[in-house]
Design brief:
Radius of gyration: 24 Å
Largest sheet: 3 strands, mixed
Number of strands: 5
Structural class: alpha/beta
Helix content: 40-55%
Oligomer: single chain
Number of helices: 6
Distance between the termini: 64 Å
């Protein structure tokens, strides 16, 4: 969550619940805009909320895990160990030991920083796409104003 500036501030101010919510919203926007179905598992250190005994939950198709007294890194390693085909996984973490564990199990791996950059590259239109959209918008605006100024006014005696 520290890799997303809009969530980092929540973490520093102790608003972990808002940071968690922001991360889930971020992942949902990405997943829903992706061209193929994605199954996402998200691991959090600690509890869902103080005193909450929930270890697993689901939200809008995201599978959520809470480590309680263990570390999220430990849960990720267990998940990779138990997965039938670790090579089908992509593990995202900034922890070198977690990434090495994923590598040893032939799982795909990506640092959190690279993941954020990748998501941005996938979701923010390139400058070429933006200029095409701008041109289309300008063409549309021009067509509208042409229709306004060049259409025959039914009140006009020449219409």
């Amino acid at each position: 969550m520290y890799k997303l500036p809009e969530l980092e501030e929540h973490m520093y101010l102790g608003r972990v619940d808002l940071a968690m919510e922001g991360l889930l919203e971020y992942l949902l926007r990405f997943r829903d805009g992706w061209k193929h179905a994605l199954e996402m598992h998200v691991f959090f250190d600690g509890r869902r909320a103080p005193g909450d005994a929930t270890r697993r939950s689901e939200r809008d198709g995201l599978f959520l895990y809470y480590s309680h007294d263990l570390s999220a890194d430990h849960l990720i390693a267990e998940f990779v160990n138990r997965h039938a085909k670790p090579a089908d996984l992509r593990v995202v973490s900034s922890d070198k030991a977690v990434l090495e564990h994923a590598r040893l199990h032939r799982a795909g791996r990506q640092t959190s920083e690279d993941f954020v950059r990748w998501v941005q590259d996938c979701t923010i239109p390139s400058s070429g796409e933006q200029s095409k959209e701008s041109e289309a918008s300008l063409d549309s605006d021009a067509d509208y104003w042409k229709s306004v100024f060049l259409s025959e006014d039914p009140r006009s005696p020449h219409g």
